[in-house]
Amino acid sequence: MPTAADTASSVVDPDEVLAFARSLIAARSENPGGSEDEAAATAAEIVTGLGLRPEIVRSGAGRPSVVASVGSGSGPSLAWNGHLDTVPTGALDTWSVDPFAGEVVDGRLIGRGACDMKGPIAAALAAAAALGRAGVELRGTLTFHLAADEEDAGIHGTKVLWERGLLTQDAAIVGEPSELTLGLAERGGAWVTATAYGKAAHGSQPHRGVNAITSMARFLVRLPEVLPQIEHPLCGPPTVNAALIEGGNAPNVVPDRCTLDVDRRIIPGETDPDAVLAPFLALADDLRRTDPDVDVRAEIREWTPAAETRSDAAIADVIRRAAANQRGEAAADAGFTGITDARFYINEASIPTVIYGPGSLTVAHTADEWIDVDELVEGARIYARIFADALGA
Ligand SMILES: [Zn+2]
Question: Most CB atoms within 10 A, among 41, 72, 168, 292?
Answer without folding.
Answer: 41
